[in-house]
Amino acid sequence: MKSINLDITHRCLLQCPKCMRQKHPGLHKRGKDISLGAMKKIAESFQYISFCGQMGDPIYHPKFLDILSICKNNTVEISTAGSGKKIEWWEEAALISSNQTWVFGIDGLPSQSNQYRIGQDGEQTFQMMKHISNIGAKVVWQMIVFKYNQDSIEKVRLMAKENNIDLVIIESSRWDIPYDKYKPDKHYKDRPSM
After folding, report:
1. Is 130 buried (19+), middle (13-18) or exposed (0-12) by CB count in 10 A?
2. 170-190: per-residue pLDDT in tens?
3. What is the architecture of the domain spanning 3-170?
4. What is the pTM of this model?
5. Residues pairing with 167 in the sheet
6. Closest CA to 46 of 101, 3, 99
């Protein structure tokens, strides 16, 4: 199966401290939104398309719903922090194709996540994640373990299970200094995830 990961926009609402956008602020200004013409060519050439931005969140591309429509015959994975869109947008996006997987980055309990994902409305993101799961979308909760959320893993695991949402726990490697305030006390990547 041919696959590609795309960074389709430079746009993002968040200010995550370890993100390249924050560490190298001039870089994202060189990016631009992918054109629909280019997206059509890519969709014809690749079966599996992942939208996991390094410099932007794909849902903020101004024509993202058009992009999803172009990719309705592809297998698509969308990684997002998921803040700021209305419920109608989420419903339309989730119903465009049954071949989509939505990966939501909420680091810890929804009320905690904005400690790293600065600007994220974790509660609203969690509600949209539950809502599109309830209407049939495949949803994954991706949690990066930080010092502030390391004691919430079991609660997050239970919340995901109660809402029929898969959980992936990630251990970051973006520690600049040994005593980084975000670095968890121990390793968590060997813990089983759902």
Report:
1. middle
2. 987 766 666 778 888 876 654
3. Alpha-Beta Barrel (3.20)
4. 0.90
5. 141
6. 3
